[in-house]
Amino acid sequence: MPLADFLSQLAELETAAREAFAAAADTHALEAARVEFLGAKGGRLKAAQKGLGTIPPADKPAAGQRFNAVKTQIDADFAAAKERLASAATTGQAADFDPTTPGTPLVLGHLHPITQTIEELKDIMGRLGFSATEGPEIEDEWHNFEALNIPASHPARDPLENFYLATAESVAGAGGTPGAPLLLRSQTSTVQIRVMENTRPPVRIVSLGRVYRPDTADATHYPMFHQIEGLLIDRRVTMADLKSVLRLFATSYLGRDVHIRFRPSFFPFTEPSVEVDMQWGEHWIEFGGAGMVDPNVLSAVGYNPDEVSGFAFGLGVERLCARRHHVTDIREFYKNDVRFLHQF
Ligand code: DAH
């Protein structure tokens, strides 16, 4: 083939390739064009290369040079088209992105309302000079009943009124009588005994924690709930001290305008005993019991009832928290519904 024909063939090929790559609107079209022009088998550039062999020897160097230049140009045109499509893809995304759109807020967790209440109640009582202590949730009958002046015949000890543990028995070293039955504590009054067994008067403690009773859950009951127990033992402690501490406690947590009242009652471990009510709108709701520590309890822990006296109280934490936040059903605290919990 004469040189002139070969060169014009190359020029035509170069133009066709440039136009085809420029016209490719997406990666599929570009790939089709690449196969057409640059395909290793049957591509048009490959076909043109075959023409080189038919060029007269004297013209071969010129033909070869021109062929290489065209090949380089077609490769460059392909690369440019590829680049154009890639950047179009990202600019397309960037156009959709609105930096002023509000982000998705992170949901931060926080302490459960009952835990928050416990912390706050500890704080209030701490300011009144009561230090916080803890006791075990698995108890023996001595601490849950016997030492609290609740004899074996007492209805509060009925197995149907308590969560006795079927297999566990206390072991030596755990603080109880080896082999004695164990139960989930039904009241935090157990901690009064544990503290008095280990300290000499004066005593001024609170203990906040879980208690368990086989009660049917309703708006004011739950089979597991929390109590705050208070105990003050000293010389010449009176009922008036009890009343002023509880009033201070209630108004600190619930607000100055919340009234409390005492109703005569009975607990085996206090004499006299009262039930403590707080005002809730038109109504009064019981939030616990209290009284002067019974001399039998003082004797059980080795104190001399002629020398010291004291008061004790045990209040329901859920009811206090519910009253403060106007929650009308304490079961809400245990549904784990974040829509409820987020409000605290
Ligand atoms: N332990 C009692 C109960 O769970 C509440 C109670 C009453 C605690 C009188 C006391 C108290 O410390 O003195 O029903």
Polypeptide structure, described:
This protein folds into 2 domains: 3-96, no CATH class; 113-341, BirA Bifunctional Protein, domain 2 (2-Layer Sandwich), CATH 3.30.930.10. Helices cover 42% and strands 22% of the residues. It is built from 11 helices and 10 strands. The strands form 2 sheets. Strands 1-5-6-10-9-8-7 form a 7-stranded mixed sheet, with helices on both faces. Strands 2-4-3 form a 3-stranded antiparallel sheet. A hairpin with a 2-residue loop joins strand 7 and strand 8 (270-280). The termini are far apart. The mean pLDDT is 92. 3,4-dihydroxyphenylalanine binds at residues 187, 189, 229, 267, 270, 288-291, 312-314.
Looking at this protein, list some descriptive labels.
rod-shaped; binds 3,4-dihydroxyphenylalanine; alpha+beta; 2 domains; 10 strands; BirA Bifunctional Protein, domain 2; seven-stranded mixed β-sheet; 344 residues
What can be said about this structure in brief?
The protein is of the alpha+beta class.
Strand residue content: 15-25%
Find the count of extended strands (DSSP E, 2+ residues).
10
SSE string, helices as H and strands as E: HHHHHEEHEEHEEHEEEHEHH
Report the principal-axis shape. rod-shaped
Number of domains: 2
Helix content: 40-55%
Main sheet: strand order: 1-5-6-10-9-8-7
* Terminal residue distance: 91 Å
Query: Over all CA atoms, what is the radius of gyration?
Result: 44 Å
Q: What is the arithmetic mean of pLDDT?
A: 92
Looking at the structure, the CATH topology of the largest domain is BirA Bifunctional Protein, domain 2
Name of the top-level CATH class of the largest domain: Alpha Beta
